[in-house]
Amino acid sequence: MNADTHTTTHIMLIGYGKMGKLIHSLAIKQDIDVCAIVDPLISSPTVSHSPTTHTTTTKESALTSPPMFVTLESALEYITQSKNTFNDIIAIDFAQGNTLRERITQLARHKIGIVIGTTGSDITDDELNAISHDNAIAVLRGSNFSIGVYIHTRLAEYSAQLIRNFSGYDVSLFESHHTEKKDRPSGTALSLARTVLAHYDPHKHKMDFNLPIDMAPRKDTLYISSQRLGTEVGTHSIDYDSSYDRITIEHRAKNREGFARGALLAATFIKNRRGLFSTEQLFESMFKHTENYFSDELSTDGNQSKNQTKDEL
After folding, report:
1. Neighbour-count burial for 181-211, b at 16+ CB within 10 Å, e otherwise
2. Is the peptide bond before 185 cis (omega within 30 degrees of 0)?
3. Cα(115)–Cα(268) distance, rounded to whole angstroms?
4. Which 3 state secondary structure label does DSSP give 124?
């Protein structure tokens, strides 16, 4: 089933840190309704355990100041009572990964689709696929929602396919993030490594992290180096090195806006869909539309050129 773009998208934000706040501000600009915010660290929740105490006087105040909850349970109770107002809700989850499975189970029980931006969880895609089908909802999981990172990943795939035909090159990955990021290496770096290994020299089929100084690199292993520094938003680079040159393919995030925009695109994408999806499917659907557009334009131009040539002859 295709997403319905003619009705308002309602978003529940789970996790109201830097990413949650940025998604909220962008949603306001895009006229996307944030119907609830959940974060256990909210100091002054609008509603704690009594959903009926919250009232919204205007559409504008609901858009800019949605009800805030310290627990998902109280938010779900509020939404259940307001179901006639908030249909087809999508949750965007950027909270901590240690309780992700519990949150997904609760959301699925209430038929709420889920965009998962949380990393560091051990929940598997098989589990998410079963949850989505058992509850007839859509789940989209991504380690990175940036369009630029998707393009970078496609470049990684293509470069690995090219360079595997030439001897003398070795490959390594590097990622750098702010000091508050808990997982290492990043989920995006792991995804990049899997992409490179799938299309590079078949003799290099393993990955490892931060090669010790006193250890020689193994030829069958792709090494990922990680750095945590200051307020670095996120840098990922792939290096192909030989005795005569080096090729570097790098993506450097200037801020978190690209990730936040991608998360909102993901919420719109899974609306009225069912099943487990990935950011690759999201962005491929966008690029497919673009490719079709340019293909049609080129076809039209080509036909015109042929006709003009025929007339001239």
Report:
1. beeebbbbbbbbbebbbebbbeebeebeeee
2. yes
3. 10
4. coil
CA nearest to 217, candidates 199, 239, 198: 239
pLDDT higher at 82 or 35: 35
- Give me the residue label for tokens 């630029």: 148
Q: Give me the catalytic one of 18, 21, 54, 181.
A: 181
Contacts of 191 (CB under 8 A, 6+ apart): 143, 144, 153
What average pLDDT does this structure show over 229-242? 95
Confidence of residue 84 (pLDDT cuts 50, 70, 90): low
Specify the pTM: 0.76
Catalytic annotation present for 110: no
Known catalytic membership, residue 271 = no
| Gap between the Cα atoms of 290 and 286, Å rounded | 7
267 burial type by CB count under 10 A (0-12 exposed, 13-18 middle, 19+ buried): buried
Of 10, 177, 236, 271, the catalytic one is 177
| Spatial distance between the Cα atoms of 309 and 313, rounded to a whole number of angstroms | 6
What CA–CA distance (Å, rounded) separates 142 from 119?
8
Burial (CB count within 10 angstroms: exposed 0-12, middle 13-18, buried 19+), residue 68: buried
